[in-house]
Design goal:
Structural class: mainly alpha
Mean pLDDT: 88
Low-confidence stretches: 16-34, 591-603
Shape: elongated
Number of helices: 36
Number of strands: 6
Largest sheet: 6 strands, mixed
Oligomer: single chain
Helix content: 55-70%
Length: 674
Amino acid sequence: MSKSQGLKALSALFKPTVLPAKTTTTKGAHGPSTSPETHFIPLIHASKTLPQLHQIHAQIILHDLFTSSRVVTQLISSSCLLKSLDYALSIFRRFDLPNLFVFNALIRGLAENSRFEGSVSHFVLMLRLSVRPDRLTLPFVLKSVAGLADVELGRCLHGGVVKLGLELDSFVRVSLVDMYVKIGELGFGLQLFDESPERNKAESILLWNVLINGCCKVGDLSKAASLFAAMPQRNAGSWNSLINGFVWNGDLNRARELFVQIPEKNVVSWTTMINGFSQNGDHEEALSMFWRMLEEGVRPNDLTVVSALLACTKIGALQAGERIHNYLSSNGFQFNRGIGTALVDMYAKCGDIKSASLVFVQTKGKDLLTWSVMIWGWAIHGCFDQALQYFEKMKSAGIKPDEVIFLAILTACSHSGNVDQGLSFFESMRLEYSIEPTMKHYAIIVDLLGRAGRLDEALTFIQSMPTNPDFVIWGALFCACRAHKNIEMAEFTAQRLLQLEPKHPGSYVFLSNVYATVGRWEDVERVRILMKTRGVEKDPGWSYIEVEGHVHNFVAGDHAHERADEVSLKLEEITASAKQEGYMPETAWVLHNIEEEEKEDALGSHSEKLALAFGLISTAPGSAIRIVKNLRVCGDCHSMMKYASKLSRREIILRDIKRFHHFKDGTCSCGDYW
């Protein structure tokens, strides 16, 4: 149905020919219940699966009850609840005399399953058949119009509501305001609210909540707060809406103040705060809130659990993630696709890929996202064979790969150096699956060729791209130039990067490092001065390490940790021991032309080395040390980690911005290919 057809059909609401709803006079129409109907309707409600509903439908036909609008209404409702919209539509089409109740069931079912166009088109059909809508029809049509974000259709429907005399019905009024909020017409929503009788405002907390939520979404927190203050009464939804507004606008202090004031906190209140802290980067506070919630006896819902697991994932808090996993297992939670996928992601990104694969097997109803997370896990751990194996298993399970899956499998190729297979996957993505590559796919191919030293091919590939390469594409080539000391191409690439994003620190830092590698200190200084002139600052490196359930954060060059002196002494000790074994600080990774001794000091303050030293003095001998770093690990730190793993006889698992490095007995799982 086109927009013009919809508007034309809705205009029928303004015509006086619209009649009251038809009623059927066939057997079983809405009226005194007959015994067979009374028998079948509870059975319909009890159906848990579509095959069960099919069997009951067959019996209804055999008992000649398909002419009953009551029975048909329940069949349609149950079909929609079971997410079988096509079956519901087939039932509707075979019913000869649809009335208000049948239409309402179908329109509602379509709207609640996000089939918005179908919901509106059946509302239009309802008008054409002169079946008059009521207060239970319009809210779901309004929801569908909001879902379609169709402003013209919404205004036309508003006119129809007025014509029907239903604009003051509390249910319809709230739905009208909600529609205007969701189609981006907050002003009309506020006008409707202001024009509402005091009776509507006093009776409907939801009316206030909808507007508060709308104001928060557009960032008008002042108006949201004033509405909240003026409410005659509030419920948990009122508090949660305003708190969510402050959270999503980054004002966590104000959100926390409101949270403390809530008379009765429910699971949504806690989830809003946990998710808010996590989304705003305060993952430790998110986990702290989660533990407090459990202590107060509030049972989390799936979204709460997923938010808490996401916080664990971001900072590599494996022990906290395991604790959440144990809680879920002990309290009857099902490993559905939402929780299962979040657990797989947490274990994979916290360095325990074996546990990730075990949870993957236990997860019920795996979807494309679940497979994607698992394949990504194998890829970032450098496990090419397993990534490829799961890719094939996914296809065998009947799940078609999408662009995200191909990103994962191409990443696995890049990290393992399988260049030819990576290029083959890139071609099959387009030719076999009709998936057009995005900038991210092109960037991985550039990275794939660049890491292998095929820089000329990488440049030719970039120049043959159908779209203009972005900062990430040139950045991938730039990193390859740095690794292979190709100064000429690095300078060429740097110019492209500086043209695209003159304020991005990465271009300057890498170019400085390239010059430093070959001793061109005047050029290093020139780049440093250019950074200062343009107000560009290098992103600070930081690393997380979890010890006994508590996450510790180390920043490069920072000695603010409570055990900083012990950390410094331990770092000096392992550096000295490593030198005896052959370790030589790779001072080319330091930007400036300073004395070698000073360069070594600068390298010693890198955040991952501080985290390593802390891990060695704070954990039991022989236990694995897990570190999360926000930048790509430098060559010197990578070398140090290999020596430290051999000297301490421990596995060191380091997650940087690109991948995992498993250091054991003096070697790294990446094969020094990163």
